[in-house]
Structure formats: structure tokens, C-alpha cells
Design a protein that fits this description.
With 382 residues, the protein is of the alpha/beta class. It is built from ten helices and 14 strands. The chain is globular.
Length: 382
């Protein structure tokens, strides 16, 4: 099983020592240690241990992605992909020029050669107006140790597979204001329309569409964002990055910072971030459309399950609209997982789910993004 659990062996021990060093340095007053160690450029630095958390200051987003700027890829060899893709075309009003149909193997991972052929077809088909992609399938979700979404945006990194716990390529899209990642950064972030079956995928898509412009309205009920530390030392790596608890009045979001194994019987949940092998009591959660949820663990991005760890598809099954998880052993580098504040603050500005999630991951090479990419509950225009 993963090095995150077996701290006494191999990379798990190195990981635990790194975490202890980071904590000790922060306690000794080295306020910049976590910032530099985790490569979070200002203002996205971690708070020193023992100090009250503070809100970050991030740049105002320069617009947001809409259906006019999204491309869709359908795998004609996969009945799931064909049906879900056609449903998505209608749901978001995509034109023929925005849809690429091709054939891919229907299995968990592509070989590097299969991926290169796939990426070449994507690059040759989509023009400059297409800034991001929806991939209408659950499989394939990986290319070797890379996620398919990471490889599409940053290029396939075969060397990472020899030592998957090492730092990976830094995303130029991390914590930036840009609303046009392809035009300005020459990368297209992507997200899988992944679910257990077609029916679940359609409901997920409907949640995304229904979410647009529904939150942050004057007089509306607040939504709830939960940031949870479970006591798992390795998987709580993001705890220093959690925002302050309390009501964000302008957005109508109540932030909860909890120390517990799992939240339960919570309503109007917009965000749920935790670190755990598996997250219990999801059946008690009542989500708002457009909810984002993920858990820091080694193999949450293994979408077929079977690793002994919860698949991120379980978040979608419970009612979340988008999620993120790693497809190969990342160790507990916080850069390889969504930064809680960067994700939340981008979403509250009106960003879409694909933007809020992608902008929050500094090193996304091993992480797969799934969900309805255009969900934008705080948007004020379509």
C-alpha cells in the first residue's frame, strides 16, 4: 500500500521526516520555510505553526471560462463516452467545432506512444479560442504514473515514474489571474466527465449546469466550506494552509475548520477538503450544486478503486460536482494537491470549477481532475 501509510518504510519515512522538519522550522519562527519548501509563491504561503490563520490575498481573476471556450473530446470506442459526450453537448450548447471525436483504448492507463498520438490529435484539432477541455470518459485517466489531465497540460514526464515522490513540473497556471490559459500560457487544463456509470455522469453534469450563478446572492442562505484535519500526520499536510474559520459575508460562505475523522449531517456543503485513506459518512452530507470535494491520499485518483483507498468518484457519487486525486504515489507534498485557500478564493470570485481546481495545484502532473468543468455557482454572467 502507499508510502503515506507505511511511514516506517521507504519513501513514507522520508515523507514523515520532511513533515517533521517543516513543522519544527515553522515553530522556530522561520516564517518563510513553508513558503519556500512548498514553492507556493507569495501570497500563497503557509501560516507558521502556532499562529492564527490569515486569509491570503490573491489577484482578481481576469474573466472566467465559459462554454464558448471549452472543447470536448469523445472516445468513439467507449459507449459511456459517446452517450455522456452527447449529453454534455446539449447541456452546455457546444458547437460542432468544439467537439473532437477519436478512438482510444478503454482502460485505466495509456502507454506513452498512445498518449503522444492522442495529444497530437487534440493539438491539431482545436483552435486558439478553445482554452480548456472536457474529456467525456472515466477511462483512461492515466499515462503511466502521470494523470491524463496533467500530461495533456504539461506534457508527459516519463522520468517522474522512476521516482514518483520527487517534485514534478510546476504549473504556470497555479495561482494566476489569467482567464485564458491556452492563449497566455500555452496549456489547456482538462477535466474528466468521470462517474461510475452514465446515469451518474448525467446527474453530475446537471448539477454543474444548475449551479451557475446560484450562490453569493444577497439574502441567500450561506453555503458551508469544511476543512478537516483528521490527525493523520502525513495526510494532514494541508492543515497549515486552511483559511480562518468564520462567515465570509460578501460571498455568503461559512468556513468551518474541524479536527475530526469526518463531518456528518452537514447541509448546504460547498467545499469539503480532508486528508484520509477513506472518508466515512458521505451519505449524510447534503451538497449544493457545484460543490468541490477531495481527500489527500496516495491513490484517490485511481478511478476504478481496488487500491484500498477511496476513489474520488465516491465524492461524485455522494453529490459533489468536481474532485481531484493522485494516480500514483505522490508522497504528501502539498503542492501536488489543491491549496485550500487558492481554490476557495478563486471559486468565490466566480471562477468555474476547472479554473478554481487547476489554479490551486502547483504540481498537477500526477493528479487527475474530474467533474463538470464549467460549474460556476458564484458567477454573475454566462
Amino acid at each position: 500500500m502507499a508510502g503515506l501509510r507505511r511511514a516506517a518504510a521507504g519513501t513514507g519515512l522520508a515523507l514523515l521526516l520532511t513533515m517533521q522538519a517543516a513543522t519544527a522550522a515553522a515553530q522556530n519562527g522561520d516564517a518563510d520555510y513553508l513558503k519556500h519548501r512548498y514553492d507556493f509563491a507569495p501570497p500563497a504561503a503557509a501560516q507558521p505553526v502556532g499562529q492564527s490563520p490569515q486569509w491570503l490575498r490573491i489577484l482578481r481573476a481576469e474573466g472566467r471560462l465559459t462554454s464558448k471556450e471549452l472543447g470536448l473530446v469523445i472516445n468513439t470506442a467507449d459507449p459511456y463516452s459517446v452517450e455522456v459526450g452527447e449529453f454534455y453537448i446539449r447541456a452546455r450548447g457546444l458547437t460542432r467545432a468544439q467537439v473532437l471525436r477519436l478512438q482510444l483504448p478503454v482502460r485505466s492507463s495509456l502507454t506513452p506512444d498512445e498518449f503522444r498520438s492522442f495529444a497530437a490529435q487534440v493539438d491539431s484539432f482545436f483552435d486558439a479560442p478553445v482554452q480548456a477541455l472536457a474529456l467525456a470518459w472515466t477511462y483512461p485517466y492515466a499515462v503511466g504514473c502521470n494523470s491524463i489531465t496533467g500530461a495533456l497540460a504539461l506534457g508527459y514526464d516519463g522520468a517522474l515514474c522512476e521516482h514518483s515522490c520527487t517534485p514534478s513540473r510546476r504549473s504556470p497556471y497555479f495561482n494566476v489571474a489569467s482567464g485564458r490559459p491556452y492563449s497566455e500560457l500555452k496549456m489547456r487544463p482538462s477535466m474528466l466527465l468521470a462517474a461510475r456509470d452514465v446515469a451518474m455522469a448525467k446527474v453530475m453534469i446537471q448539477r454543474g449546469v444548475a449551479s451557475d450563478g446560484t450562490l453569493g446572492l444577497r439574502g441567500g442562505l450561506p453555503a458551508n466550506a469544511y476543512f478537516v484535519a483528521t490527525g493523520d500526520r502525513a495526510r494532514d499536510a494541508r492543515q497549515p494552509l486552511f483559511p480562518p474559520a468564520g462567515l465570509v459575508r460578501r460571498a455568503g460562505v461559512d468556513v468551518h475548520v474541524e479536527n475530526t475523522l469526518a463531518i456528518e449531517n452537514a447541509s448546504r456543503v460547498l467545499v469539503y477538503q480532508t486528508g484520509a485513506v477513506s472518508v466515512p459518512k458521505l451519505d449524510t452530507i447534503k451538497w449544493v450544486p457545484g460543490a468541490l470535494a477531495d481527500h489527500l491520499t496516495s491513490f484517490g485518483g485511481a478511478l476504478e478503486g481496488g487500491t484500498g483507498q477511496m476513489s474520488i468518484i465516491d465524492w461524485i457519487a455522494s453529490g459533489a460536482t468536481a474532485s481531484y486525486g493522485s494516480v500514483s504515489e505522490p508522497c504528501a507534498h502539498p503542492q501536488k494537491f489543491p491549496h485550500p485557500q487558492v481554490m476557495l478564493l478563486n471559486y468565490l470570485q466566480g471562477a468555474s470549477a476547472i479554473e478554481a481546481y487547476w489554479k490551486s495545484v502547483a504540481w498537477p502532473q500526477q493528479g487527475v481532475f474530474i467533474g463538470e468543468p464549467l460549474a460556476a455557482p458564484f458567477s454573475r454572467s454566462r
